[in-house]
Specification:
- The structure is a single chain.
- The protein has one domain.
- Helices cover 78% and strands 2% of the residues.
- It contains 13 helices and two strands.
- Strands 1-2 form a two-stranded antiparallel ribbon.
- Strand 1 and strand 2 form a beta hairpin.
């Protein structure tokens, strides 16, 4: 159930799980759009343009609320800058890595964060994860591994000129993604999650544009098709896919949120199969089943 007031926004555990699943699907599609746009836009340029455009759209819709929340507690700015900085590192590694590997492989490697999150939590809380978390994480990670193996075989056939570079960058993205999930778990319970989501998306855009002007030659899309893809990234994959995450995570633990994020690479593989003709193969289909099974073990509780 969703409850919205002028001061706060709260959701139930089940609604949080459904929202996390929906935004994971939306963000899973971003790998395909980004892979296409990277043919004409440099990675930091794409990052900055995508996220700043999303921020402008969201700020126009919710400016009164955002300004009111900042006046009420200016600490939300510092929290948003911290989260935006970590996510900027994650997205920079992801987009640069996408230049050297396939969209599905990048998505699956990045979402190995589901294994890293319980480890971080165990260290921070000084407690061993619950057995159901361990089992569901292992099952989900095996599923990811099966699809990664299939994607790696495809990449080997394609003859990448930079073996291993893309995969290393995607693992850097996984580490920072796990850190972002844990940080979101803490600060989404302290500040208004919608305002937090809008502001950190804005900081990501600013950091991306600043980095692009420093290291690249930034420019806007050059064709109607590219603009459509950029708008899809900004509205569907960013304004929804990133901004909603603090809202969705508010009733969830970081371990549960991390496991549900495994839907992200699954949706990338399925969309790649439907839209680009990428074959899932037997191992990919088995991996998809294991991912869904691992998610169901934890996220479908009442």
């Amino acid at each position: 159930m969703l409850h919205i007031t002028d001061q706060n926004l709260t959701i139930s555990f089940r609604t949080g799980c459904l929202l996390m699943a929906a935004l994971s699907i939306a963000r899973g599609s971003s790998f395909l759009f980004s892979k296409h746009l990277l043919g004409s836009m440099e990675p930091l340029n794409l990052l900055g343009t995508r996220f700043f455009l999303a921020f402008l759209i969201l700020f126009l819709l919710f400016s009164r609320k955002v300004i009111a929340d900042i006046r009420k507690d200016p600490g939300v700015i510092h929290a948003s800058l911290l989260l935006g900085g970590v996510y900027f590192l994650c997205m920079a590694a992801e987009l640069i890595g996408l230049q050297y590997t396939t969209a599905s492989t990048c998505s699956f490697l990045e979402n190995s964060a589901i294994v890293i999150v319980p480890v971080i939590e165990a260290v921070l809380l000084r407690r061993f994860p619950k057995p159901v978390i361990i089992l569901s994480t292992v099952i989900t990670f095996i599923g990811i591994g099966l699809i990664v193996l299939h994607g790696s075989a495809d990449a080997a056939v394609a003859g990448s000129g930079h073996p291993g570079l893309g995969e290393v960058l995607c693992m850097v993205a996984a580490l920072t993604y796990a850190a972002a999930i844990v940080i979101t778990d803490r600060i989404s319970k302290k500040y208004d999650p919608l305002t937090l989501g809008i502001l950190y998306v804005g900081f990501m855009g600013l950091l991306g544009l600043a980095a692009s002007f420093l290291f690249e030659t930034p420019h806007l899309p050059q064709s109607g098709t590219e603009w459509i893809m950029l708008l899809a990234l900004a509205v569907l994959c960013t304004a929804f896919g990133f901004t909603v995450q603090p809202i969705a995570q508010k009733p969830l633990s970081s371990e549960v949120a991390g496991i549900i994020c495994a839907i992200n690479p699954l949706s990338t593989a399925v969309l790649g199969w439907l839209l680009m003709g990428d074959a899932l193969g037997v191992s990919g289909m088995i991996g998809a089943v294991l991912i869904l099974a691992g998610i169901s073990m934890k996220s479908m509780r009442s």
